Design the sequence.
């Protein structure tokens, strides 16, 4: 067997949608279902080359929250700020969202008729 035919170790990580959803429900229980789906699709669509699931989800959250839940894109698109300045500007909002999502969402109870 020549050197070129030796097997190489391919350290790759691809996470299934269901595994990512379970992770989000466990670690970010306050995250809205629609956001969880979008984030899980993004994480499960990539190969994370050796990163752990938590790191992959963290990267996707850091992309999703500024672009979907803040004015980041508008600040950059309108050339009001550079990408770095816009990222710094929305950072407190991103941290606030992450903090909210780490807490369980409200539990809704169904009222039962008396009697």
Sequence:
């Amino acid at each position: 067997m020549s050197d070129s035919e030796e097997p190489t170790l391919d350290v790759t990580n691809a996470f299934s949608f269901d595994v990512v959803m379970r992770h989000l429900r466990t670690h970010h229980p306050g995250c809205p279902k629609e956001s969880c789906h979008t984030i899980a699709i993004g994480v499960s669509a990539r190969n994370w080359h050796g990163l752990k699931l938590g790191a992959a989800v963290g990267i996707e959250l850091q992309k999703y929250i500024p672009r979907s839940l803040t004015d980041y894109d508008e600040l950059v698109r309108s050339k009001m700020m550079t990408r770095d300045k816009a990222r710094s500007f929305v950072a407190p909002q991103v941290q606030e969202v992450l903090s909210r999502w780490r807490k369980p969402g409200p539990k809704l109870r169904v009222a039962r008729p008396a009697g």
In short: The CA atoms of residues 26 and 102 lie 9 Å apart.
